[in-house]
Amino acid sequence: MLKNYKFSFQLSALALFLFIMAPNFIWFAIPVENDILRKEAVLPALDIIQSVFQALLIATLIFIKNKTSQPPSRLSYISVISMVILYYLSWVLYYFNIVNYLSILGLAVFPCLAFLLYAVIHKNYVAVIPTIIFAVCHIAGSVINFII
């Protein structure tokens, strides 16, 4: 299975990562009134695991390519872009102080789905594993820290 993979820089994966991270950079610079996302994590170990797998998913998306992957269709990219748009809409809700389980889940679920769809579309199954582990940790952490 690994014989189909090579180390290769994927500009589109880097672009996806930067688009996903852009609202986070704004959030770091411009805090929201009543910003619940800045509170202390209930399970710090879960945050550490999440961060490790986030780094792994980004590294595998950006630097590993499946040699058998064909160029994705426009429809495939539309699905990833849709997840990014829904993620941005979740940030808009958050900045308008509409903070509920839907907006919090939107901030956690949509970027994970964007990364997962991108990996599957590009047949980068090496990236799927850290993406799924990151998604489970990210969504669980969001529920534990901000919804329960």
Description:
This protein has five helices and two strands. The longest helix has 23 residues. The model has no long low-confidence stretch (mean pLDDT 95). Helix content is 71%, strand content 4%. It is mostly helical. Strands 1-2 form a two-stranded antiparallel ribbon. The relative contact order is 0.19. The protein starts with a strand and ends with a helix. α1 packs antiparallel against α4, α3 runs antiparallel to α4 and α4 runs antiparallel to α5.
List its salient traits.
single chain, 148 residues, mainly alpha, 2 strands, globular
Layout of helices and strands, plus pairs?
Elements: E1 5-7, H1 11-29, H2 44-63, E2 64-66, H3 74-95, H4 101-121, H5 125-147
Antiparallel strand pairs: 1-2
Q: What is the radius of gyration computed over CA atoms, rounded to a whole number of angstroms?
A: 16 Å
- Give the N-terminus to C-terminus distance in angstroms: 41 Å
> Strand order within the widest sheet?
1-2
Low-pLDDT segments, ≥5 res: none
The count of helical stretches stands at: 5
Give the overall average pLDDT.
Answer: 95
The counted number of beta strands is 2
Morphology: globular
